[in-house]
Predict the structure.
Amino acid sequence: MKPSSRLDRIPPYLFAELERKVAAKRAAGVDVISLGIGDPDRPTPAIVVDAMQEAVTEPETHRYPSNRGRADFREAVADFYARRFDVQIDPDTEVLPAIGAKECIFNLNLAFLDPGDAALAADPGYPVYTAGPIMAAGDPVLMPLLPERGFTPDLGAISDADRARSKLMFFNYPNNPTGAVVRDGFFTEVVEFARSTGVLAVHDNAYSETTYDGYRAPSFLATRGAKEVGVEVFSWSKGYNMTGWRCAAIVGNAAAIDIYWRLKTNIDSGLFEAVQLAGIAALSPDTDGDKREMNALYTRRRDLVVGALRKIGVEVRPPKGTIYVWAPVPARFASAAEYCEHVLEEAAVVISPGAAYGPNGEGFFRISLTTPDDRLVEAVERLGRLAN
């Protein structure tokens, strides 16, 4: 059997490779602690689980769902956006369920790119921003995220040629993998850029509910003119400990959402209605306390990791959002991959090399905070011993 040539253009998925390495070590009897994958270790809020348990007993949820989604699901998303972000959403035309943010972002490439078209992608960034365009026979055009610019791209540096052939732009704040929050004025710059180029702005809003130190992340759609030029992909995964549930929504520009819907009707059969009903429960104000509790937990873990890294000479700034710490590789290592391999072999701790998220991630590594406290303490102690 011969795979399609498009698979030759993309590297193995980072987290699949990490899982393979961890499995091999554990099979050899090594006690490996993984700080690589951002998968919350705490359970989904009880109100959400209860809603799901009730929903799966209802025969109406057992049939094919509509790709449009349940009306009450779309209304719940609109109500949440009004309450949380002060953004008014038409539930009939400006919101649609998705089977996770990853699926949604990938399918936007299929919906909007023709061969030879391009998508502007944050670098470093979530790997699907670059793999998606390739799989759709297009090209990713990297937008460097540099520390001196607060990990936001310089839109003015994008060439005229790349502006002309780009139809999508992927960006994400609070940012994975850097943990950066959006700088003032950047969303306005995106709106102006999209207006001048015709590109569809796609904000991956996966971490708005996971923030610290009093910071509250805004929605891109709260920016004047954003709905005219863009969409936002809102995910339940991280903020509500629902990574396995595959629940997300695309919100914003009605015409873009209709195009996405036309593609979806030919690819899948919609989001399981019981998951939609669970998603409605998650968006209720009744889960606000669960989110505060989780953010307090992540704050404690963040401070633990940052303090441990500083003790071994790694200068790192505590993030105000996401579930990650982004830190520079110690100077004595030639690359992030070399350092992460060293940590795995010598300390049996898995951390992610920054270059896996794009060329401009080189020189950094990422630590996930989604590990139980006792194991996280053990991991940072191992890193400390490794440095001595």
About this structure: The chain has two domains: 5-42+288-387, 46-285.
